[in-house]
Amino acid sequence: SKAGPTAATIAAIGTAALGAIVKVSEANDEFRRSYEEMSTYLSDSQVNRMKQSALKLSTNNQSDMSLSDISKLQTEIVKAAPELTGNQKAVDGLTRSLDEYAMVTKAAGETTEDSVKDVVDIKEEWGLLGKDIPSVIAMIANAAHDGRTSQHDFATAMAQSSAQARAAGSNMQDFASGIIVMRTHFENASQAGQRYAQVLQRMEATNVEKFMPSCVGATQALINLKEYTDKGGNATKLLGKRVAETAMDFANNSKEIANYTSKLYDSGNITKQVKQRENDLDVVQGNLKNSWQAAELELGKGMMPTWISFLKYVTNGIDDFTHLER
């Protein structure tokens, strides 16, 4: 008589089928419902691009972010950038950025609500436009990837101290780099941001152009302060005792801050991960097909025809929903 299937084979087939069932169920039900709100902000073709992107990620998302979480993330951030409606190039850029953000936000252990709040708060507090959101996302992602601060703590620090930093003449890029590099010198990212803003305000108040963030930029002002003290200048006399010590802490790390600033908006590594996941999707589908083909060979076509048909069905369902235009 023919040997029965091994336990390992049955387990492998069952796991593949269960995953496929979940994906198809989401795609057929929750997936279609989740974009109704987005359709009030974007055109049908733009919404479709967002759907395609979300489905690709949820089908092969190593950090297990659900389809509903991805669609919620997309929808809430699109609502924060209504001026992008009608601009296909801008929406495409936002879609790619949200692909990246969906991956890093779950890997960082953040909730969807916090992740949306992080982006929206920074956008609003720094007076940014919808077109700036991809830069904000890249900045948050790099901060989280760096490991010196968590995604949410960094975003909170950026939003909380934005008014003081902007009043002192700092741009977002310089201020973010200072927080990330100097985070470990303080209790948390928010404290680093508050202290940095105080330093920048005091430097702006010197009315000496080379120390004023509004004239030379925050990072360059720190570099100039370091050069000034290296040549015998007195930081305490220039800035006052209360601020001078903290200012010199930042100034002594100004070269590292400058180096970090140059890569702050670089999302190249994250983009590579997105592309890799899209490529891996073909492997996932191939494994599913191999599962039901192996089942036919081992179980026999006449032994469990209903099971074989079912597994073929869910595998083909994955094909239908994932072989989308890229």
Roughly what is the average pLDDT, rounded to an integer?
Answer: 77
Number of helices: 18
Overall strand count: 0
User: Radius of gyration in whole Å, from Cα?
Assistant: 26 Å
Helix content: over 70%
Largest sheet: none
Summarize the model shown.
With about 325 residues, the chain is mostly helical. The chain has helices at about 5-30, 30-35, 45-60, 65-80, 90-105, 110-125, 135-145, 150-160, 160-165, 170-180, 190-205, 215, 220-230, 235-240, 240-250, 255-260, 270-300, 305-320.
Which terms summarize this structure?
single chain; 326 residues; mainly alpha; 0% strand; disordered C terminus
Describe the structure.
This protein is mostly helical. Helices cover 73% and strands 0% of the residues. The protein has helices at residues 7-28, 30-33, 44-59, 67-79, 88-107, 112-125, 133-146, 151-160, 162-167, 172-182, 189-204, 213-216, 218-230, 235-239, 241-251, 254-261, 268-299, 305-322. The longest helix is centred in the last third of the chain and has 32 residues, at 268-299. Mean pLDDT is 77; it is low at 280-285 and 291-326.
Write the SSE topology:
Elements lengths: L6 H22 L1 H4 L10 H16 L7 H13 L8 H20 L4 H14 L7 H14 L4 H10 L1 H6 L4 H11 L6 H16 L8 H4 L1 H13 L4 H5 L1 H11 L2 H8 L6 H32 L5 H18 L4
